[in-house]
Amino acid sequence: MSLVEDDGRISVRIPMQMKKRGGRKEISVPTGLEDMVEQTCYGNAFAIALARAHGWMDMLDSGKYGSIREMADALGLCSTYVTRLLRFTLLAPDIIQAILDGKEPDGFSQNKLVGAIPANWMEQRREWGFEEQ
User: What is the pTM of this model?
Assistant: First the structure.
């Protein structure tokens, strides 16, 4: 960022990049300036879907519901929707963290996960363009 005086006025110039995320265009902070900006995932539909998926998996694991269909019915949701989101719990932890931090690769969205999710985390990283861990 730089402040420039021009005829008594101050102009603030902030370098920015446009990034497509989940079908939306967002302004992202350029590399090296991340520490200067507080970032949150509020309103990030992908982060919300991940939270739901893990919450639902916890309910299934605890025995609160005996099946996905039973849980979906109790929550007033379509079982295919619940099943689709539950697959998000198979993602590698670093991929989940990248999504929550808003640092997933350009073009990565929930739609990329419509098909089968590879069980191998290294394969997930390669397939979707995440850096090797």
Answer: 0.64
